[in-house]
C-alpha cells in the first residue's frame, strides 16, 4: 500500500469506490443514490448495494444537508439477492 | 403456478412463530427461506433469553429454535429452504430454488424477512479480518471455527456485547469494546459479563483505522469529543487480528416495498419500515409483517409479533373470527407490551438521562455503582448477610425478565407485573440454595455465605467458560471489573443438567472480599 | 482454528466425516457440511479474492451470503459465495482476481 491511498476509505466494497470519489461526484452534482450509482457504479456490484447503501446515504446527507429519510429508498427492483441469470429462463445451471 | 393459502417469507423466530400460530388455527402454511437451515439467527444465539418463564425465558436461543422447528413439523407446516423469494407483488411470490424460478400465488402473505447488519467505513475497513459481529457469531456458534485470537468489538448494543461474550466462550480474547456514545447501548447485565472477564470498554471512542498489509494486524482507536469529533493525539493502538462491527441493523423491507406497501422512516427502528397497525397488517390487504423487518428489536418480541400476525392472517383467511380472534390477539399484545416495558422500552427517555446524569453506574462502566447496589431490592442487608448463605441479586436495570422468581423453591424472589420490575428479595425466606444463580439469563446473581469459616466467605457464582476448575484448586478470584483481587479455593463445582451449561462455582475467599468477588479469571488457576 | 470443545455446545462429534479440498494447490481438511469459508478460516486463510479496480484483498465480511466479499473460484466457476457453499471431497478452490473467468463451465 502506498502512503497516499493508505488512509483511503472504501465505501462500496464490491466496486472499490472510495469516500473521496463519492464526495467529488456529489460536488459535480450527483446528489442522489441513483445518480451516484450511475456515475461511480456504487451498489452495482454483485451485492447490489445491500452493504453500502446506508453509507452512501450518510455521505450525501453530510455533504448536502438533506435528511437520511429523503436520500434513502432508491427503487428496489428484483432480484433482491444475487442470482444466476439463467434462473429467469428456468435453465439448469 | 403453485397455490398456497398462507405464504410466510422468512423462517426466523417471527416467521416460524407466525406459521405455527396460523397452522394451529387450521391455515395451510408454506414458509420460504433463502438459507439452507431454518431458524434465522436463532441457532447462533447460545445465550439464555430474557422474557417471562412461560415464554421460554431462561432457555438458550438455539433450543427455542429447535422447539419451533419441532412444532412446525408436528403441525405439517411446509418449510421450503434454499428458496429465495426475489420478487413479491401483492399475492404472487417469485421464488428461486436450485437455479429454477417458481411462482406461487398466495391468499395471504406474512413478510418476516428480518434485518441486515449495518456496515461501517474507515481506513482499512475492507481488510480481511474486519467482519460484522453477526459473521463472527455465525462462524463460532454454527460452523465452530474461531475467526481470530485477538478481537476488537465495535459497538456496545446487545449484539456487540453478546458476541463479545460468545467469542470468549469460544476461546478468543476480546482485547476491547469500542463505543462512540458515552454510555453502553445494550443491556447492562450483558456488559457486566464481559467486564467481569476483564474486557476494557472504550466508551466515547471510535475506530480510526485498521492496519495491515493483507489482513488486519492492528487497530487504532481515537477518543471523541462531545460533538463526536476525534481528539487529535488521543490515538490508542491495539494489536488485533479480527475487528467485529456491531453498529446496528437495517430492516430488510425490499420485498414489502416492491409489493407496494406504504413505508415510514423511523430511525429508532433501523430505517424505513412497512407501516403496520397493532394487528401487524400492512397497507396492502392480505399482507402482514412481523419481526425485525418492521423494526429492529429482540427475538422475544419478534416471536410475539409473529404470533400476532399469524392470528390476524388466520382471521383474514376466515379460520377464526369475532371474540375468539380478539381474545387471542389481546393476550399476545399484553405479552408484547410487557416485554417492551422498562428501561429499554423507551429509548427517548433514556437519551435524556444519559445527558444529565454523572458517569457512574452500569450504563457507563459495565459495573453497577455503589448507589445502584445500595438501592437494589435484590441485595440483602448487612444484618442478613451476617446470618448465613443468601442470594445477592445485582439486577439494577428494568429489563423484561423473571426466571429467578419462577425457579426459587422458597418463593423468596418477587418480580410480579410488569415483568420489567426489579426482582425483590425477601431476605429471610432465602436460604442461599443458589437455584437462581444458574437460572438468571443475565448471570447477575451470586450467593454469599459470610459464615462459611472464621475468616473465609463462600461466594457462589455462575460460570460459562472452559476449562472448568477442579475442586480444591486455587484460582484467581475477580471482582466486577474483572480485576484479580485475591486467591480463592474452589469448594464446589455444580454442573447441573437443568442449568444447561451454566455452572455454579463456589469459591472460599478472604472474608473482606465477600462483597467484591463475583467470578474467577478464565482458566485462572494459580 | 476449529472449536473442538465448547462450554455450551459441547464437543465436536468425533465421528464427523472429513473431506479434503485444494486451495490454490494446497490440500486442507474440512468437516463435511462446513462452508468453504469456514474451512479456510480454520487453517488461517483470510484473503479470498482481489478486487478488480484496486487489487485489494477481501475476505469474509457478512458471513451469510449477502455482501459477496468472500467470492472465490470453485471448481472453475467464479463468483461462488464461499460462506454459503459447503465443502465437498476433492473441491478445487482458487483466489479470485476481479470478477474471475470461467475456465471450465460445468455442464452435465
Can you tell me about this structure?
The complex is a heterotrimer of chains A (93), B (526) and C (108). Chain A has helices at 3-6, 19-27, 33-40, 53-64, 68-71; strands at 10-12, 17-18. Chain A has 93 residues and is mainly α. In chain A, helix 2 packs across helix 4. Chain A starts with a helix and ends in a 22-residue tail after the last helix. In chain A, 37% of the residues are buried. The model of chain A is unreliable at 1-5 (pLDDT under 50). Chain B is of the alpha/beta class and 526 residues long. In chain B, strands 1, 2, 3, 4, 5, 6 and 19 form a 7-stranded mixed sheet that branches. The termini of chain B are far apart. Chain C is mainly β and 108 residues long. Chain C is 6% helix and 28% strand. In chain C, the strands form 2 sheets. Chain C has a 5-stranded mixed sheet, covered by helices on one side. A 3-stranded mixed sheet of chain C has the order 4-3-8, with no helix packed on it. Classes of the chains: A mainly alpha (93), B alpha/beta (526), C mainly beta (108). Chains in contact: A-B, A-C, B-C. Chain B binds chain C through residues 34-36, 46, 60, 116-117, 119, 126-132, 134-136, 138-141, 143-147, 149, 169-171, 214-215, 464-466, 500-501, 503, and chain C through 1-9, 12, 31, 34-35, 37-39, 41-42, 46-48, 56-66, 69, 83-84, 86.
Main attributes of the structure:
heterotrimer, A: 93 residues, mainly alpha, two-stranded antiparallel ribbon, disordered N terminus, C: 108 residues, mainly beta, Ubiquitin-like (UB roll), five-stranded mixed β-sheet, 1 helix
What can be said about this structure in brief?
Chain B is of the alpha/beta class and 526 residues long.
Radius of gyration of chain B: 24 Å
Largest interface, per-chain counts?
Answer: B-C, 39 and 36 residues
- Per the CATH scheme, the topology name of the largest domain in chain B is FAD/NAD(P)-binding domain
Q: What is the CATH architecture term of the largest domain in chain B?
A: 3-Layer(bba) Sandwich
| Number of β-strand runs of chain B | 28
Number of helices of chain B: 14
Structural class of chain C: mainly beta
How many discrete domains of chain B? Answer: 3
Calculate Rg of chain C over CA atoms. Answer: 14 Å
Strand content of chain B: 25-35%
- Any idea what the shape of chain C is? globular
Amino acid at each position: 500500500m502506498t502512503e497516499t491511498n493508505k488512509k483511503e476509505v472504501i465505501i462500496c466494497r464490491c466496486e472499490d469506490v472510495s469516500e473521496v470519489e463519492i464526495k467529488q461526484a456529489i460536488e459535480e452534482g450527483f446528489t442522489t443514490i441513483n445518480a451516484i450509482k450511475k456515475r461511480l457504479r456504487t451498489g452495482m456490484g454483485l451485492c447490489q448495494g445491500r452493504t453500502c447503501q446506508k453509507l452512501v446515504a450518510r455521505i450525501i446527507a453530510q455533504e448536502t444537508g438533506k435528511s437520511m429519510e429523503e436520500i434513502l429508498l432508491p427503487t428496489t427492483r428484483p432480484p433482491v439477492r444475487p442470482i444466476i441469470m439463467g434462473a429467469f429462463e428456468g435453465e439448469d445451471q | 403456478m403453485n397455490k398456497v393459502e398462507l405464504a410466510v417469507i422468512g423462517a426466523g423466530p417471527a416467521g416460524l412463530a407466525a406459521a405455527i400460530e396460523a397452522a394451529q388455527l387450521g391455515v395451510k402454511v408454506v414458509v420460504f427461506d433463502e438459507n439452507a437451515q431454518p431458524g434465522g439467527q436463532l441457532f447462533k444465539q447460545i445465550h439464555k433469553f430474557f422474557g417471562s418463564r412461560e415464554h421460554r425465558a431462561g432457555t438458550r436461543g438455539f433450543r427455542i429454535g429447535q422447539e419451533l422447528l419441532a412444532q412446525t413439523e408436528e403441525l405439517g407446516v411446509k418449510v421450503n429452504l434454499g428458496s429465495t423469494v426475489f420478487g413479491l407483488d401483492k399475492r404472487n411470490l417469485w421464488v428461486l430454488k436450485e437455479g429454477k424460478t417458481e411462482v406461487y400465488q398466495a391468499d395471504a402473505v406474512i413478510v418476516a424477512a428480518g434485518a441486515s447488519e449495518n456496515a461501517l467505513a474507515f481506513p482499512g475497513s475492507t481488510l480481511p479480518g474486519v467482519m460484522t459481529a453477526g459473521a463472527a457469531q455465525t462462524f463460532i456458534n454454527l460452523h465452530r471455527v474461531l475467526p481470530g485470537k485477538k478481537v476488537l468489538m465495535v459497538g456496545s448494543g446487545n449484539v456487540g456485547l453478546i458476541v463479545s461474550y460468545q467469542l470468549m466462550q469460544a476461546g478468543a480474547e476480546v482485547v476491547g469494546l469500542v463505543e462512540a456514545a458515552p454510555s453502553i447501548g445494550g443491556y447492562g447485565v450483558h456488559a457486566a459479563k464481559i467486564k467481569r472477564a476483564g474486557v476494557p470498554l472504550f466508551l466515547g471512542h471510535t475506530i480510526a483505522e485498521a492496519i495491515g498489509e493483507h489482513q488486519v494486524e492492528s487497530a487504532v482507536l481515537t477518543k471523541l469529543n462531545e460533538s463526536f469529533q476525534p481528539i487529535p493525539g488521543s490515538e490508542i493502538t491495539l494489536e488485533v487480528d479480527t475487528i467485529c462491527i456491531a453498529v446496528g441493523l437495517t430492516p430488510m423491507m425490499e420485498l414489502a416495498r416492491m409489493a407496494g406497501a406504504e413505508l415510514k422512516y423511523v430511525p429508532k427502528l433501523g430505517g424505513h419500515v412497512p407501516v403496520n397497525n397493532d394487528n401487524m397488517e400492512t397497507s396492502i390487504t392480505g399482507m402482514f409483517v412481523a419481526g425485525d423487518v418492521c423494526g429492529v428489536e429482540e427475538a422475544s418480541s419478534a416471536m410475539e409479533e409473529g404470533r400476532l400476525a399469524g392470528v390476524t392472517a388466520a382471521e383474514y383467511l376466515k379460520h377464526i373470527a369475532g371474540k375468539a380472534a380478539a381474545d387471542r390477539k389481546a393476550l399476545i399484545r399484553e405479552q408484547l407490551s410487557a416485554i417492551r416495558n422498562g428501561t429499554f422500552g423507551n429509548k427517548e427517555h433514556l437519551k435524556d438521562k444519559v445527558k444529565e446524569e454523572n458517569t457512574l453506574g452500569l450504563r457507563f462502566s459495565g459495573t453497577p455503582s455503589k448507589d445502584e447496589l445500595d438501592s437494589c431490592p435484590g441485595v440483602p442487608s448487612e444484618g442478613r448477610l451476617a446470618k448465613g448463605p443468601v442470594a445477592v441479586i445485582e439486577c439494577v436495570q428494568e429489563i423484561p425478565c423473571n426466571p429467578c422468581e419462577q425457579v426459587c423453591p422458597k418463593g423468596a424472589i418477587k418480580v410480579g407485573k410488569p415483568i420489567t420490575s426489579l426482582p425483590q428479595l425477601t431476605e429471610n425466606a432465602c436460604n442461599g440454595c443458589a437455584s437462581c444463580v444458574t437460572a438468571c439469563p443475565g448471570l447477575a446473581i451470586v450467593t454469599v455465605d459470610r459464615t462459611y469459616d472464621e475468616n473465609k466467605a463462600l461466594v457462589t457464582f455462575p460460570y460459562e467458560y472452559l476449562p472448568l476448575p477442579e475442586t480444591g484448586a486455587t484460582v484467581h478470584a475477580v471482582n466486577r471489573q474483572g480485576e484479580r483481587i485475591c486467591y480463592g479455593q474452589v469448594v464446589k463445582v455444580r454442573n447441573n443438567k437443568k442449568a444447561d451449561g451454566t455452572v455454579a462455582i463456589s469459591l472460599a475467599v478472604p472474608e473482606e472480599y465477600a462483597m467484591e468477588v463475583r467470578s474467577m479469571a478464565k482458566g485462572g488457576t494459580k | 482454528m476449529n472449536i473442538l470443545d465448547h462450554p455450551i455446545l459441547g464437543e465436536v462429534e468425533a465421528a464427523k466425516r472429513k473431506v479434503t479440498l485444494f486451495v490454490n494447490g494446497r490440500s486442507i481438511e474440512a468437516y463435511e457440511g462446513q462452508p468453504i469459508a469456514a474451512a479456510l478460516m480454520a487453517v488461517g486463510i483470510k484473503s479470498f479474492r482481489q478486487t478488480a479496480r484496486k487489487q485489494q484483498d477481501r475476505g469474509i465480511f457478512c458471513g451469510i451470503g449477502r455482501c459477496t466479499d468472500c467470492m472465490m473460484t470453485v471448481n472453475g466457476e467464479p463468483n461462488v459465495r464461499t460462506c454459503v457453499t459447503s465443502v465437498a471431497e476433492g473441491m478445487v478452490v482458487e483466489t479470485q482476481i476481479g470478477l474471475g473467468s470461467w475456465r471450465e463451465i460445468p455442464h452435465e
